[in-house]
Design a protein that fits this description.
- The protein contains 14 helices and 23 strands.
- 51% of the residues are buried.
- The structure holds uridine-diphosphate-N-acetylglucosamine.
């Protein structure tokens, strides 16, 4: 089994390039289903999750080319057909449920197995289905499958009980070719939603207000091919910001600005981290004194749940009491047990974790309980005494491209091996 081994404690130094956002690329690839002309997606990191979605589209008949040199993805969906062999791939990755909206729109029918829960919570899809139903689809759930049917989707006013990222994206994709006007209220405001809308608008869609709580979509007849460069990965950038903070180092993070990173930067500033913005990126200086802080995860523009494990690793090393409240997912504290094995002092009380910073962490065998938890283990390993052996690294590969290579370039003692 592949493991990532980190030997602490070393100061990091240098530059790191941030990849395009996984959470922007996945809905964008799903959205290409709506178009039967060629689409080019630039700067696409070939992450595990991205390759699952590509495989899925290929099963449906898509012609897809990828260049390792230019990182360019060329998708031609002109010969797409409905097949039922995609189910095992859908089961492999939760986010593949994002194909439901575009497939329903293109074929008037879609049947997928109901996604189960995952390590961080039960993750229902009721809001996606509520949206499809309001757009005129018949929904049928039985034998572990969900079937949606509609001869022609029709625009409607849809209020989301919670600003779900996936539901907002799926409903946008289902409604761009629907008849008339769709309004999504209490929509998710994540930057990746804005990027998806931007991509679809380049193809000829009429989406207004994406990135805010009320999104209006005016249905159009057809989408045309386009070229798009997805936004940078704010969670990868945030992970390297925490790396600078935890290892008391200076890291130059390239290819980012502070617009989409404000919630993370503001919290790190409270901790004592300093930032210098320049044209091409942000220099993060984590050398100064650090202070404990309180964090509550919230939908954007609140603090992102996808940065909660990494921040917990950092706060475990800052003397004093910090409080982390997780409000987005019901079970996103699996990494607490792993950090505790490394010497962290953390108590969980319902949705809240009380982190009492310790003077030192010590390396041991730990697991990546999910994607971001795996990143948190590497961050803790950077400053733990001795060797940290991170297992279940497939979780990390779902969302970070060559994570150990990027850390190695910054001077970390990190490598991957079969153990
Ligand atoms: C996306 C991100 C994920 C991030 C999450 C929250 C992608 C591919 N993944 O996941 O990295 O952690 O946003 O920022 O972009 N919910 C319902 N009913 C629904 C849908 C969601 O109750 O129909 C609940 C979920 O159980 C969860 C909360 O809403 O508690 C947030 O989920 P959601 O915003 O939908 O996250 P995802 O789109 O799955």
């Amino acid at each position: 089994m592949e493991k990532i081994i980190v030997k602490g404690v070393k100061e990091l130094k240098g530059e790191v390039n941030i990849s395009s956002a996984k959470n922007a690329i996945l809905p964008i690839i799903a959205a290409t289903i709506l178009c039967d002309e060629k689409v080019i997606i630039k700067n696409t990191p070939m992450l595990e999750d991205v390759s699952v979605l590509i495989e899925l589209l290929r099963e449906l008949g898509a012609e897809i080319k990828y260049s390792n040199i230019t990182d360019e993805l060329i998708i031609d969906n002109s010969n797409l057909k409905l097949v039922d062999t995609i189910d095992s791939l859908v089961k492999k990755m939760r986010a593949s449920f994002l194909i439901m909206g575009p497939i329903l729109s293109r074929f008037g029918y879609c049947k997928l197995s109901l996604p189960g829960g995952c390590n961080i919570g039960s993750r229902p899809i009721d809001l996606h289905l509520k949206g499809f139903k309001l757009l005129g689809a018949d929904i049928n759930k039985q034998y572990g499958y969900v079937e949606t049917k509609a001869t022609k989707l029709k625009g409607n006013r849809i209020y989301l009980d919670f600003p779900s990222v996936g539901a907002t994206e799926n409903i946008i994709m289902a409604s761009v070719l629907a008849k008339g006007e769709t309004i999504i209220e209490n929509a998710a405001e994540e930057p990746e939603i804005y990027d998806l809308a931007n991509f679809l608008n380049k193809m000829g869609a009429k989406i207004y207000g994406a990135g805010r709580g009320k999104i209006t979509i005016i249905g159009v007849d057809k989408l045309k091919g386009t070229t798009h460069t997805p936004i940078y990965d704010r969670i990868e950038a945030g992970t390297f910001m925490v790396a600078a903070a935890i290892s008391k180092s200076v890291i130059d993070i390239k290819g980012i600005d502070d617009d989409n990173l404000r919630p993370i930067i503001e919290k790190l500033k409270e901790c004592g981290v300093k930032f210098i913005n320049y044209e091409d990126g942000i220099i993060v200086d984590g050398r100064g004194n650090k202070y404990p802080i309180d964090i509550k995860t919230l939908p954007h523009p609140g603090f992102p749940t996808d940065m909660q494990p990494q921040m917990m690793a950092l706060l475990s090393t800052i003397e004093g009491g910090s409080v982390i409240t997780e409000t987005v997912f019901e079970n996103r504290f699996m990494h607490v047990a792993e950090l505790t094995r490394m010497g962290a002092d953390i108590k969980i009380d319902g949705k809240t974790a009380l982190v009492n910073g310790v003077s030192k962490l010590t390396g041991c065998e730990v697991k990546s309980t999910d994607l971001r938890a795996g990143a948190a283990m590497i961050l803790a390993g950077l400053v733990a005494e001795g060797e940290t052996v991170v297992g279940d690294v497939y979780h990390i590969d779902r969302g970070y491209l060559n994570i150990e290579e990027k850390f190695k370039k910054l001077g970390a003692n990190i490598y991957r091996e079969d153990r």
